[in-house]
Amino acid sequence: MTEKAILEYDGKKFEFPLVRGSENEVAFDVKTLRAATGGLTTIDPGFKNTGSCLSDITFLNGEKGILRYRGYSIEELAEKADFLEVAYLLIFGDLPNTDQLEKFHADIRKQSVVDDDIKKIIDAFPKSAHPMGVLSSLTSALTAFNPSSVNVNSDEAMYNAIVKILGKFPVLVAWSMRKKQGLPLDYGSSKLGYVENVLKMMFNQPNEDYVQNDIIVNALDKLLILHADHEQNCSTSTVRIVGSSHAGLFASLSAGISALWGPLHGGANQAVLEMLQAIKEDGGDTKKYMAKAKDKNDPFRLMGFGHRVYKNFDPRAKIIKVAADEVLSDLGVNDPILDIAKGLEQEALNDPYFVERKLYPNVDFYSGIIYQAMGIPVEMFTVMFALGRLPGWIAQWKEMRFRKEPIGRPRQIYTGENLRAFVEIEKR
Ligand code: SDX
User: Fold this and answer.
1) Whose CA is closest to atom 24 on ligand 1?
2) Among this protein's residues, is 364 annotated catalytic?
3) In the chain, N or C: fewer CB atoms in 10 Å?
4) Is the C-alpha dihedral spanning 164, 370, 235, 232 positive or negative?
C-alpha cells in the first residue's frame, strides 16, 4: 500500500506519495504538485524542510548525533580506516580490499603532477590572496589542462576524472600555502602515503631533509576522514547543482570550494580560531563574547556553535575534542586557546539561550586548535576542510550524474511591482 500525504487546497484534496528511506526518514514527494494543483509552489528559504535528492552515500541523524558513510559509523571509520580507504568507500560504495586500494592509490599517484603552467596562474596572485580563492581558481583552471574530464559519460571517463582530481588537488592545496610563504612550488614523493605526501609538499623546506612526524600524519588523516562528507550541506549542494547543468567535475568542485569558504560554513574553522584569539587577547573574557552572541543587535555569532541538522552534539566535534587533547599533549604543545575553548563550551552548554536553541559545538569548533598545533596557518584551515571534503563532493557529484538527475532550477514567488508602462527619462 503506497503511503501518502493529503493536501487540502482551494476546496479540493490532493494526494502525494510518501518516500521512506532505509533509515525510516519520510518525505512527501511533491514532483506533481504544480501540475496537480494548477501551479501551487512550496517556499522554504534555506531548504530547512526540503530534500533535494535521494542518496545512498551519507546518513545523518541530527537528534541522535549519528553520522555514517555508506552505513559505517564515523566513530569506527575515524578509529580503524585511513583517509584514502574512506575516499574509496564514499566514491565507490564499499570498503576496498588490499588490491583495490593499492590500484586506486597507484592510479592516483600517476596523476599527482600538474601542468607547470599552473605556476604561472599562481604567480599572478598577490601573496595576500586567501588560499581558498587561489584553490577555487586553480581547481577550475584544471579543466583547461584536462579537458577530457568534462564530459564524464562512462565509468572509465568518470574513474579517470576522479583519480586525476584526487592526484592533483593535494598539489594545489600545498602550493596555495607555499605561495603565501614564498616557498618553492614542488612535489613530495610518490613513495609516500597519500596524507604523508600532502604534508611533505606543504612543509618540506628546500634546504633541509624532510622528517615525517607520525603524530601529525595520523591526526591529519583522522581530521580528513571526519570532514569527508556530510550529505546535502551548502557546498555539496552547490557541487550537485552546478554539475546538474552538465558542467564538468572540476568546475563543479571549484564552485563547492567557494561555497565552503563562507564563515557560516567551512570558513567557520578559521573564524573560531580568530574568535578564540580575540578572547585570549581580551584577557579570556568569555562572558563578553557570550553576551555578544546572544545580542540580536550584534551580528557576532559564537563561531563553531550551532548546526542546521545536529540538535545534539556533532559526533565529529566529540572525536576532534578528544584528539585535540591527545595531539597537543603528544606534540608537547601547551596552547591556552584549548582551555579557552573548553571554558566557552561549558558556558554555552549551561546557558539557556544556547540550550533552548540546541546550539552545540560543531566540527569547526576544535579542529583549528589541532591544525594550529600542527603548524598549519589559520588561513589554510578551510583549505584543509576542502581537502577532506573532496571525496564526498566527488561521490555526490557522481551519484547525481549517474542517476541522470534533472538540472537544478528552483521556483520562486514574485513579490515585486505589477505591470507598469515605460516612462521616458525626460518624464521621470
Ligand atoms: C559546517 O550543513 C552542514 O552539514 C555543514 C557542515 C559540513 O560538514 O558540511 O557541518 C560544516 O558548516 C558547520 C557549521 C559551521 N558554522 C558555524 O559554526 C557558524 C556559526 N553557526 C551559525 O551561524 C549557525 O548555527 C549555522 C549557520 C551553522 C546554522 O544556521 P541555521 O540552521 O540557519 O540556524 P539559524 O541561523 O536559523 O539559527 C537559529 C537560532 C537563531 O536565533 P533566533 O532567531 O531563533 O533567536 O539560533 C541562533 C540564531 O540567531 N544561532 C546562534 C548561533 N547559531 C544559531 N546564535 C549565536 N551563535 C551561533 N553560533
Assistant:
1) 306
2) yes
3) N
4) positive
